[in-house]
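Q: Got a minute? One more chain.
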Amino acid sequence: MKNSFITILDFGSSKITCMAASKVAGREDFLIRAVGQSSYNGFDENSWYEPDKLAEAVTDAISQVERKTETTVRELYVGVPGAFCATATGEASLTFHSKKKIDSDDVKELVEKAKIYDNVSDYLALEGKPVYFILDGVLKNYDPVGSVASKITALVSFSFIKNTFRNSVSPILLDKGIKKVTYVNACDAEAQFVAQSCGCIDYCIVVDVGHITTNVMLCGGKSLLFSRSFALGSGYLASDLCQVEGCSYGVAMSALSKVNFSLEFKEGDCYNVNGTALDARRTNEILKARIAQIADYIVKSFQYCDKEIPYNTPIVLTGGGLTYLRGGAHLLSEYLGKNVRVYESVNPQTNRNEYVSCYGVIREAINQNSVKNGFFSFFRK
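A: Always. Here it is, folded:
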Protein backbone atom coordinates (compact mmCIF):
# COMPACT_ATOMS: atom_id res chain seq x y z
CA MET A 1 0.00 0.00 0.00
CA LYS A 2 1.80 3.08 -1.23
CA ASN A 3 2.70 5.67 1.42
CA SER A 4 1.47 3.10 4.01
CA PHE A 5 -2.02 4.61 4.00
CA ILE A 6 -5.13 4.75 1.87
CA THR A 7 -6.93 7.89 0.72
CA ILE A 8 -10.69 8.25 0.41
CA LEU A 9 -13.08 10.88 -0.92
CA ASP A 10 -16.59 11.26 0.50
CA PHE A 11 -19.40 13.44 -0.88
CA GLY A 12 -21.65 14.82 1.85
CA SER A 13 -24.65 17.01 1.14
CA SER A 14 -22.75 20.20 2.04
CA LYS A 15 -19.05 19.22 2.16
CA ILE A 16 -16.59 17.06 0.25
CA THR A 17 -14.16 15.31 2.58
CA CYS A 18 -10.84 13.68 1.76
CA MET A 19 -9.10 11.53 4.38
CA ALA A 20 -5.83 9.64 4.52
CA ALA A 21 -5.80 6.74 6.98
CA SER A 22 -3.80 3.64 7.85
CA LYS A 23 -4.80 0.37 9.50
CA VAL A 24 -3.63 -0.42 13.01
CA ALA A 25 -1.68 -3.68 12.83
CA GLY A 26 -3.49 -6.63 14.36
CA ARG A 27 -6.68 -4.65 15.08
CA GLU A 28 -9.83 -3.47 13.30
CA ASP A 29 -9.03 0.16 14.10
CA PHE A 30 -7.41 2.68 11.80
CA LEU A 31 -5.59 5.97 12.26
CA ILE A 32 -6.65 9.07 10.36
CA ARG A 33 -3.49 10.78 9.14
CA ALA A 34 -4.97 13.85 7.48
CA VAL A 35 -8.31 15.45 6.62
CA GLY A 36 -9.14 17.86 3.82
CA GLN A 37 -12.55 19.42 3.43
CA SER A 38 -14.27 21.87 1.11
CA SER A 39 -17.79 23.27 1.10
CA TYR A 40 -20.10 22.99 -1.89
CA ASN A 41 -23.84 23.06 -2.56
CA GLY A 42 -24.42 19.33 -2.84
CA PHE A 43 -26.68 17.36 -5.15
CA ASP A 44 -30.06 15.78 -5.72
CA GLU A 45 -30.78 12.33 -7.11
CA ASN A 46 -30.08 13.38 -10.68
CA SER A 47 -27.44 16.09 -10.69
CA TRP A 48 -25.13 18.50 -8.87
CA TYR A 49 -26.57 21.83 -7.80
CA GLU A 50 -23.49 23.72 -9.02
CA PRO A 51 -21.64 21.42 -11.42
CA ASP A 52 -19.27 24.19 -12.52
CA LYS A 53 -17.87 24.40 -8.97
CA LEU A 54 -17.51 20.66 -8.38
CA ALA A 55 -13.97 20.35 -9.76
CA GLU A 56 -12.66 23.13 -7.53
CA ALA A 57 -14.22 21.58 -4.40
CA VAL A 58 -12.91 18.07 -5.16
CA THR A 59 -9.42 19.28 -6.03
CA ASP A 60 -9.21 21.51 -2.96
CA ALA A 61 -10.15 18.71 -0.53
CA ILE A 62 -7.56 16.35 -2.03
CA SER A 63 -4.87 19.04 -2.17
CA GLN A 64 -5.31 19.76 1.54
CA VAL A 65 -4.52 16.11 2.33
CA GLU A 66 -1.54 16.15 -0.02
CA ARG A 67 -0.10 19.19 1.74
CA LYS A 68 -0.63 17.72 5.20
CA THR A 69 0.89 14.34 4.31
CA GLU A 70 3.54 15.80 2.00
CA THR A 71 2.63 13.21 -0.61
CA THR A 72 0.87 13.07 -3.96
CA VAL A 73 -2.37 11.10 -4.11
CA ARG A 74 -2.19 8.54 -6.92
CA GLU A 75 -4.84 6.08 -5.77
CA LEU A 76 -8.25 6.99 -4.38
CA TYR A 77 -11.33 5.25 -3.01
CA VAL A 78 -14.45 7.27 -3.77
CA GLY A 79 -17.59 6.89 -1.68
CA VAL A 80 -20.60 7.28 -3.96
CA PRO A 81 -23.50 8.92 -2.06
CA GLY A 82 -26.83 7.15 -1.76
CA ALA A 83 -28.57 9.50 -4.19
CA PHE A 84 -26.33 8.14 -6.96
CA CYS A 85 -26.57 4.46 -5.97
CA ALA A 86 -29.01 1.58 -6.20
CA THR A 87 -29.00 -1.76 -4.39
CA ALA A 88 -30.52 -5.09 -5.36
CA THR A 89 -30.17 -8.64 -4.06
CA GLY A 90 -29.98 -11.99 -5.80
CA GLU A 91 -30.05 -15.55 -4.49
CA ALA A 92 -28.22 -18.63 -5.73
CA SER A 93 -27.63 -22.21 -4.58
CA LEU A 94 -25.12 -24.99 -5.15
CA THR A 95 -26.00 -28.63 -4.52
CA PHE A 96 -23.30 -31.28 -4.22
CA HIS A 97 -23.54 -35.06 -4.67
CA SER A 98 -22.33 -35.51 -1.10
CA LYS A 99 -21.21 -33.38 1.80
CA LYS A 100 -18.09 -31.38 1.02
CA LYS A 101 -15.98 -28.70 2.60
CA ILE A 102 -16.96 -25.28 1.26
CA ASP A 103 -14.09 -23.29 -0.22
CA SER A 104 -13.62 -19.79 -1.63
CA ASP A 105 -14.23 -21.02 -5.19
CA ASP A 106 -17.71 -22.17 -4.15
CA VAL A 107 -18.45 -18.74 -2.71
CA LYS A 108 -17.15 -17.05 -5.84
CA GLU A 109 -19.38 -19.26 -7.99
CA LEU A 110 -22.41 -18.41 -5.85
CA VAL A 111 -21.78 -14.68 -6.22
CA GLU A 112 -21.46 -15.04 -9.99
CA LYS A 113 -24.55 -17.24 -10.20
CA ALA A 114 -26.63 -14.73 -8.21
CA LYS A 115 -25.77 -11.95 -10.64
CA ILE A 116 -29.06 -11.27 -12.42
CA TYR A 117 -28.47 -7.61 -13.24
CA ASP A 118 -25.60 -7.64 -15.73
CA ASN A 119 -26.68 -4.69 -17.84
CA VAL A 120 -28.57 -1.90 -16.12
CA SER A 121 -29.22 1.20 -18.18
CA ASP A 122 -27.48 4.35 -16.89
CA TYR A 123 -25.78 2.44 -14.06
CA LEU A 124 -22.39 0.83 -13.51
CA ALA A 125 -22.59 -2.49 -11.66
CA LEU A 126 -20.14 -3.17 -8.84
CA GLU A 127 -19.18 -6.70 -7.83
CA GLY A 128 -21.57 -8.61 -5.58
CA LYS A 129 -21.07 -9.01 -1.84
CA PRO A 130 -22.53 -11.99 0.07
CA VAL A 131 -24.98 -11.00 2.79
CA TYR A 132 -25.25 -14.44 4.37
CA PHE A 133 -25.30 -18.15 3.52
CA ILE A 134 -27.67 -20.99 4.39
CA LEU A 135 -26.10 -24.43 4.79
CA ASP A 136 -28.27 -27.48 4.08
CA GLY A 137 -31.38 -25.30 4.20
CA VAL A 138 -31.25 -24.65 7.94
CA LEU A 139 -27.97 -23.22 9.22
CA LYS A 140 -27.34 -19.51 8.69
CA ASN A 141 -23.68 -18.68 8.23
CA TYR A 142 -21.73 -15.53 7.44
CA ASP A 143 -18.40 -17.16 6.59
CA PRO A 144 -18.98 -20.64 5.18
CA VAL A 145 -15.44 -21.39 4.03
CA GLY A 146 -14.32 -24.52 5.84
CA SER A 147 -17.85 -25.62 6.75
CA VAL A 148 -19.21 -28.95 5.49
CA ALA A 149 -22.55 -29.12 3.65
CA SER A 150 -24.31 -30.83 0.76
CA LYS A 151 -26.13 -27.64 -0.25
CA ILE A 152 -25.30 -23.98 0.17
CA THR A 153 -27.50 -20.99 -0.63
CA ALA A 154 -26.28 -17.39 -0.71
CA LEU A 155 -28.06 -14.05 -0.60
CA VAL A 156 -25.87 -11.60 -2.49
CA SER A 157 -26.07 -7.81 -2.51
CA PHE A 158 -25.28 -5.89 -5.68
CA SER A 159 -24.56 -2.17 -5.80
CA PHE A 160 -24.93 0.08 -8.83
CA ILE A 161 -23.66 3.62 -9.29
CA LYS A 162 -25.14 6.12 -11.70
CA ASN A 163 -23.00 6.83 -14.74
CA THR A 164 -23.72 10.53 -14.27
CA PHE A 165 -21.73 10.46 -11.03
CA ARG A 166 -18.77 8.57 -12.45
CA ASN A 167 -18.75 10.62 -15.65
CA SER A 168 -18.58 13.87 -13.69
CA VAL A 169 -16.05 12.81 -11.04
CA SER A 170 -13.59 10.66 -13.02
CA PRO A 171 -12.39 13.45 -15.37
CA ILE A 172 -11.74 15.71 -12.37
CA LEU A 173 -9.60 13.05 -10.71
CA LEU A 174 -7.79 12.31 -13.96
CA ASP A 175 -6.94 16.00 -14.36
CA LYS A 176 -5.55 15.85 -10.81
CA GLY A 177 -3.29 12.98 -11.87
CA ILE A 178 -5.25 10.26 -10.08
CA LYS A 179 -5.63 7.33 -12.47
CA LYS A 180 -6.34 4.53 -10.00
CA VAL A 181 -9.89 5.00 -8.71
CA THR A 182 -12.15 2.56 -6.86
CA TYR A 183 -15.83 3.41 -6.47
CA VAL A 184 -17.61 2.25 -3.33
CA ASN A 185 -21.28 2.41 -2.37
CA ALA A 186 -21.01 4.81 0.58
CA CYS A 187 -24.30 3.60 2.11
CA ASP A 188 -23.10 0.00 2.10
CA ALA A 189 -19.77 1.00 3.64
CA GLU A 190 -21.37 3.19 6.31
CA ALA A 191 -24.05 0.67 7.25
CA GLN A 192 -21.50 -2.11 7.66
CA PHE A 193 -19.18 0.09 9.70
CA VAL A 194 -21.98 1.15 12.05
CA ALA A 195 -23.33 -2.38 12.42
CA GLN A 196 -19.90 -3.74 13.28
CA SER A 197 -19.12 -0.85 15.64
CA CYS A 198 -22.43 -1.34 17.47
CA GLY A 199 -22.08 -5.12 17.64
CA CYS A 200 -25.07 -5.80 15.36
CA ILE A 201 -24.51 -9.27 13.89
CA ASP A 202 -27.76 -9.61 11.96
CA TYR A 203 -30.13 -6.84 10.84
CA CYS A 204 -29.50 -3.15 11.51
CA ILE A 205 -31.16 0.06 10.30
CA VAL A 206 -28.89 3.08 9.92
CA VAL A 207 -30.34 6.56 9.41
CA ASP A 208 -27.86 9.24 8.34
CA VAL A 209 -29.43 12.69 8.56
CA GLY A 210 -27.15 15.23 6.93
CA HIS A 211 -27.43 18.87 5.93
CA ILE A 212 -29.90 18.52 3.06
CA THR A 213 -30.00 14.76 2.50
CA THR A 214 -31.06 11.77 4.60
CA ASN A 215 -30.01 8.19 3.82
CA VAL A 216 -31.97 5.25 5.21
CA MET A 217 -30.12 1.92 5.13
CA LEU A 218 -30.92 -1.67 6.04
CA CYS A 219 -28.02 -4.07 6.35
CA GLY A 220 -28.11 -7.74 7.19
CA GLY A 221 -25.16 -9.98 7.79
CA LYS A 222 -22.25 -8.56 5.83
CA SER A 223 -23.76 -6.27 3.23
CA LEU A 224 -26.46 -3.76 2.37
CA LEU A 225 -29.97 -5.04 1.74
CA PHE A 226 -31.77 -1.78 1.02
CA SER A 227 -31.16 1.96 0.93
CA ARG A 228 -33.18 5.04 0.08
CA SER A 229 -32.36 8.74 0.06
CA PHE A 230 -34.57 11.80 0.38
CA ALA A 231 -33.99 15.54 0.53
CA LEU A 232 -34.38 16.54 4.18
CA GLY A 233 -31.85 17.49 6.84
CA SER A 234 -30.61 20.17 9.22
CA GLY A 235 -30.56 22.73 6.42
CA TYR A 236 -34.33 22.39 6.14
CA LEU A 237 -34.71 22.94 9.89
CA ALA A 238 -32.69 26.14 9.62
CA SER A 239 -34.68 27.26 6.59
CA ASP A 240 -37.93 26.81 8.53
CA LEU A 241 -36.60 29.06 11.30
CA CYS A 242 -35.62 31.70 8.74
CA GLN A 243 -39.10 31.76 7.25
CA VAL A 244 -41.05 31.84 10.51
CA GLU A 245 -38.73 33.91 12.71
CA GLY A 246 -37.38 36.18 9.98
CA CYS A 247 -33.78 35.61 11.04
CA SER A 248 -30.75 35.09 8.82
CA TYR A 249 -29.71 31.60 7.75
CA GLY A 250 -26.48 31.92 9.75
CA VAL A 251 -28.42 32.72 12.92
CA ALA A 252 -30.78 29.82 12.24
CA MET A 253 -27.91 27.33 11.84
CA SER A 254 -26.27 28.62 15.02
CA ALA A 255 -29.59 28.28 16.84
CA LEU A 256 -29.57 24.53 16.18
CA SER A 257 -26.56 24.19 18.49
CA LYS A 258 -28.53 25.83 21.32
CA VAL A 259 -31.85 24.06 20.90
CA ASN A 260 -32.84 21.66 23.67
CA PHE A 261 -35.95 19.51 23.26
CA SER A 262 -35.51 18.02 26.72
CA LEU A 263 -36.34 21.26 28.55
CA GLU A 264 -39.76 22.73 29.33
CA PHE A 265 -39.91 26.41 28.40
CA LYS A 266 -42.32 29.02 29.70
CA GLU A 267 -43.67 32.00 27.84
CA GLY A 268 -41.00 34.60 27.21
CA ASP A 269 -38.05 32.18 27.28
CA CYS A 270 -35.64 32.73 24.41
CA TYR A 271 -32.62 31.29 22.68
CA ASN A 272 -30.07 34.08 22.35
CA VAL A 273 -28.04 33.59 19.19
CA ASN A 274 -25.44 36.16 18.16
CA GLY A 275 -27.51 38.99 19.59
CA THR A 276 -30.78 37.68 18.14
CA ALA A 277 -33.51 36.44 20.49
CA LEU A 278 -35.63 33.52 19.25
CA ASP A 279 -38.72 32.49 21.17
CA ALA A 280 -37.75 29.11 22.66
CA ARG A 281 -41.21 27.54 22.62
CA ARG A 282 -41.96 28.56 19.06
CA THR A 283 -38.49 27.56 17.86
CA ASN A 284 -38.87 24.09 19.32
CA GLU A 285 -42.30 23.63 17.78
CA ILE A 286 -41.04 24.71 14.36
CA LEU A 287 -38.19 22.20 14.50
CA LYS A 288 -40.37 19.42 15.92
CA ALA A 289 -42.70 19.71 12.92
CA ARG A 290 -39.82 19.20 10.51
CA ILE A 291 -38.36 16.29 12.51
CA ALA A 292 -41.80 14.68 12.46
CA GLN A 293 -41.69 14.95 8.67
CA ILE A 294 -38.25 13.30 8.61
CA ALA A 295 -39.65 10.45 10.71
CA ASP A 296 -42.59 10.12 8.33
CA TYR A 297 -40.24 9.94 5.33
CA ILE A 298 -38.15 7.28 7.07
CA VAL A 299 -41.24 5.12 7.56
CA LYS A 300 -42.37 5.71 3.96
CA SER A 301 -38.91 4.74 2.69
CA PHE A 302 -39.50 1.16 3.76
CA GLN A 303 -42.59 0.94 1.56
CA TYR A 304 -40.03 0.38 -1.19
CA CYS A 305 -38.24 -2.39 0.72
CA ASP A 306 -39.16 -5.99 -0.14
CA LYS A 307 -37.28 -7.50 2.81
CA GLU A 308 -38.87 -8.75 6.03
CA ILE A 309 -37.44 -6.72 8.89
CA PRO A 310 -37.47 -8.25 12.39
CA TYR A 311 -39.44 -6.17 14.89
CA ASN A 312 -36.45 -5.80 17.23
CA THR A 313 -34.05 -4.54 14.53
CA PRO A 314 -31.92 -1.77 16.10
CA ILE A 315 -32.03 1.74 14.61
CA VAL A 316 -28.84 3.79 14.73
CA LEU A 317 -28.78 7.53 14.00
CA THR A 318 -25.69 9.07 12.38
CA GLY A 319 -24.79 12.20 10.45
CA GLY A 320 -24.49 15.79 11.60
CA GLY A 321 -28.12 16.75 11.03
CA LEU A 322 -29.88 15.53 14.19
CA THR A 323 -27.28 13.84 16.38
CA TYR A 324 -26.05 17.13 17.83
CA LEU A 325 -29.53 18.49 18.60
CA ARG A 326 -30.15 18.01 22.32
CA GLY A 327 -33.04 15.60 22.56
CA GLY A 328 -33.17 15.21 18.78
CA ALA A 329 -32.67 11.44 18.75
CA HIS A 330 -35.23 10.98 21.53
CA LEU A 331 -37.75 13.08 19.60
CA LEU A 332 -37.16 11.05 16.44
CA SER A 333 -37.62 7.90 18.51
CA GLU A 334 -41.01 9.15 19.74
CA TYR A 335 -42.21 9.91 16.22
CA LEU A 336 -41.03 6.53 14.90
CA GLY A 337 -42.40 4.60 17.87
CA LYS A 338 -39.05 2.79 18.02
CA ASN A 339 -35.95 3.16 20.13
CA VAL A 340 -33.27 5.13 18.29
CA ARG A 341 -29.68 5.08 19.46
CA VAL A 342 -27.04 7.58 18.41
CA TYR A 343 -23.82 6.21 16.95
CA GLU A 344 -21.03 6.45 19.52
CA SER A 345 -17.38 5.45 19.58
CA VAL A 346 -14.90 5.39 22.44
CA ASN A 347 -12.16 5.83 19.86
CA PRO A 348 -11.49 9.58 19.40
CA GLN A 349 -10.45 8.80 15.82
CA THR A 350 -13.98 7.67 14.92
CA ASN A 351 -16.34 9.56 17.23
CA ARG A 352 -17.59 12.33 14.93
CA ASN A 353 -21.09 11.61 13.66
CA GLU A 354 -20.76 13.83 10.61
CA TYR A 355 -17.83 11.67 9.45
CA VAL A 356 -19.37 8.21 9.90
CA SER A 357 -19.77 7.82 6.14
CA CYS A 358 -16.05 8.59 5.77
CA TYR A 359 -15.17 6.01 8.43
CA GLY A 360 -17.19 3.43 6.54
CA VAL A 361 -15.44 4.15 3.24
CA ILE A 362 -12.06 3.96 5.01
CA ARG A 363 -12.91 0.56 6.51
CA GLU A 364 -14.14 -0.69 3.12
CA ALA A 365 -11.00 0.62 1.41
CA ILE A 366 -8.76 -1.15 3.94
CA ASN A 367 -10.71 -4.39 3.51
CA GLN A 368 -10.51 -4.18 -0.27
CA ASN A 369 -6.83 -3.37 -0.13
CA SER A 370 -6.13 -6.53 1.85
CA VAL A 371 -8.01 -8.73 -0.66
CA LYS A 372 -7.42 -6.66 -3.77
CA ASN A 373 -7.29 -9.67 -6.04
CA GLY A 374 -10.10 -11.58 -4.34
CA PHE A 375 -13.76 -11.87 -5.18
CA PHE A 376 -14.72 -9.03 -2.82
CA SER A 377 -12.88 -6.50 -4.97
CA PHE A 378 -15.05 -3.83 -6.55
CA PHE A 379 -14.90 -2.47 -10.07
CA ARG A 380 -11.68 -0.58 -10.67
CA LYS A 381 -11.41 2.13 -13.28
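A: The CA atoms of residues 181 and 381 lie 6 Å apart.
Q: Perfect, thanks.
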